[in-house]
Design a protein that fits this description.
The protein is an alpha+beta fold and about 325 residues long. Helices cover about 30% and strands about 15% of the residues. It contains eight helices and eleven strands. The strands form three sheets. It has a five-stranded mixed sheet with strand order 3-4-2-1-11.
């Protein structure tokens, strides 16, 4: 690592942290290119890993890539590297989502280094959480995490939680009767327990979590697409603790900022000892997504629904090898 450029070994380390980020159906829709001569690291969206039916505008793809970008920033901070990020730097290359360079004149994000230990501990948990409320002090910290990335985190009132949970059930029904949406989910979920050792993307059966007993679960149930024998049942929390991430606008740059805020909230929650999951499927249907917002709050556009609480951590999910997602060019 020189004073003004990344070197390949450093880039491998940064990208290794970046790709642990969450993405829709764990599709991992990113590609990185490192140009040795210029010292620039480029982040591209991968259209081959897009969801044409449920993410036609590639909003969720941008969120996942934004989350990977935030992990990269955290990794750089842990190494003491000041970096400069440019979002959507070239209109002629719409899949070029960001460039990252070292810059000694940039403000070092030293506070991000404290989140580095949470990067590989953060996992989506589709298990029941306890009824213990998340302390206000921790919620305030998560609000600040989103705010630092230019986004807003709102804890909904009881009536609004009921509305969002109703939208979750509505989205599930819509997907079940939509053959194209159903096919996408089926393609990105494991068919058997044995897939976990061979597939390097998608949702493995071990991450489905148990089926809900007694009431609908506040998490996405991937098991209906590919039923797994002996999956088990569990009673989920009576009153899920939700938080909504929103942005003022709804442009591609807003989505990338929201992805970074999403990951910052998740890493902060993990560092604080919270279990987390995300519920995005109501946001995949335009008419449901608009209803998810609180009409009396200045929410703008809802980008993600978080579920927070105390419970078991989710399992590891597979990641593609760096040889598939990183290209180093002279």
């Amino acid at each position: 690592m020189t004073a003004t450029h990344f070197d390949p070994d450093t880039v491998i380390r940064l990208v290794g942290d970046a790709v642990t980020a969450p993405s829709m159906h764990n599709a991992q829709p990113w590609k990185f290119e490192f140009h040795v001569g210029s010292g620039a690291l480029a982040l591209y969206g991968d259209p081959d890993r897009a969801m044409p039916r449920t993410d036609p505008d590639h909003r969720s793809l941008h969120l996942g890539c934004g989350a990977a970008l935030f992990n990269l920033r955290v990794s750089a901070a842990s190494l003491g590297l000041p970096v400069r990020v440019r979002l959507l730097p070239d209109d002629a290359e719409p899949w070029l989502l960001a460039t990252v360079t070292t810059d000694d004149t940039a403000d070092a994000e030293r506070e991000l280094a404290s989140l580095h230990g949470a990067i590989r501990r953060r996992h989506t948990s589709r298990y029941p959480f306890g009824e213990e409320p998340v302390p206000t002090a921790l919620l305030d910290g998560l609000w600040a995490a989103a705010h630092l990335e230019g986004c807003r985190l709102t804890v909904p009132d009881t009536w609004h939680i009921d509305t969002v949970l109703g939208l979750v059930r509505d989205a599930e029904h819509r997907e079940e009767i939509d053959p194209l949406a159903r096919a996408e989910t089926t393609a990105w979920t494991s068919h058997t327990q044995s897939d976990a050792g061979t597939r390097r993307d998608g949702i493995p059966a071990a991450a489905f979590g148990p089926k809900a007993s007694g009431r609908a679960a506040p998490v996405r149930d991937f098991g209906w697409a590919n039923p797994i024998p002996d999956r088990g049942w569990a009673v989920f929390e009576k009153r899920p603790q939700l938080a909504l991430l929103s942005t003022g606008g709804d442009t591609r740059a807003d989505w990338l900022r929201a992805g970074q805020a999403m990951e910052r909230v998740l890493l902060q929650a993990t560092a604080d000892g919270l279990a987390t999951s995300m519920t995005s499927h109501p946001l995949e249907w335009p008419e449901l997504r608009w209803t998810a917002r609180d009409p009396v709050a200045a929410m703008g556009h809802v980008q993600m629904v978080f579920r927070l609480g105390y419970g078991p951590a989710g399992p590891d999910t597979p990641r593609r090898p760096l040889t598939e997602v990183l290209e180093i060019r002279e």
